[in-house]
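note to self — DONT lose this again. spent like an hour looking for the file last time. sequence + predicted structure for the chain T wanted, 288 res
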Amino acid sequence: MQRRSGVGVGVGIALGVVTLALAFTALPLRSTSTGPPRRAMHARQVTAHSIAAASPGRSVGREPGAAVGDGHVALSPERSPPRARGAPDAGDVEPQDDAGQSVLRSVLEGDTLLSRYWALRNQPLHRREQRAGYLALLSDPAMHEKVRHELLHPNEAWQDARRNLQQLMEVDYLADALSWPDNPRREALLDLLATTIGADNFTRGADLDQRRTKATVKMELYALLFALDPARAHAVVEAARGTRLEGLLQFIAEEVRRRERVQVAMERRPGVFAGGADDERDVAVRAR
């Protein structure tokens, strides 16, 4: 699978989380034609590093089934297809502390489907029957419905880190399912993305972090849908006109397009932006 650069990951997940949080803090949850203004606030406590608790042994930048150090590849009928450009990945960062693993265990405990997906996804070598099981899981309607429900209605009783990690893992699942071009439920999955983005699942009385989580999920799903089907993504934004999600979805669409311009600029001049965060900020200003 093709993976975004390290800088792209920073622009994708970290910028998506922080910038969406800034925007949604000011969103009055009513119809607006211009979108919410940005204002300063603290980023949520769970950063891209702490919520990206991958399983032990996963190497940064290596996909399940890709070549490993001894030259072996997955024993599977076919290599995994490229990941859709712009798709987020909660496993891009290797965990360096026990806290991340503890959060990961708390998410997977008692969740048979998600545990099975995460184990297969992060296994470097697949036997033929494991490959078949993985593809069956990517096209499983029961898993699709579970993910849809949990993305729309995250467990509000969970601590922020646990809830946020579960959401990112389930976004990863959708990205992986859609990166398989022969998935028999591909169209249904695209519809799932569109309806989840456009659903008004913001409940009155929800705290700020819960609202940020839901808004950030919509941004990550929109980025995935925009990469795969821009026309359908645009239709979601248009359908929200006149609703209280109008401003939020317009902001998301503009931010995803800006992120795309940043990514293209960095790919065209890869050596110029090797310096990290300062270069990211510089190219972000130029891309506006």
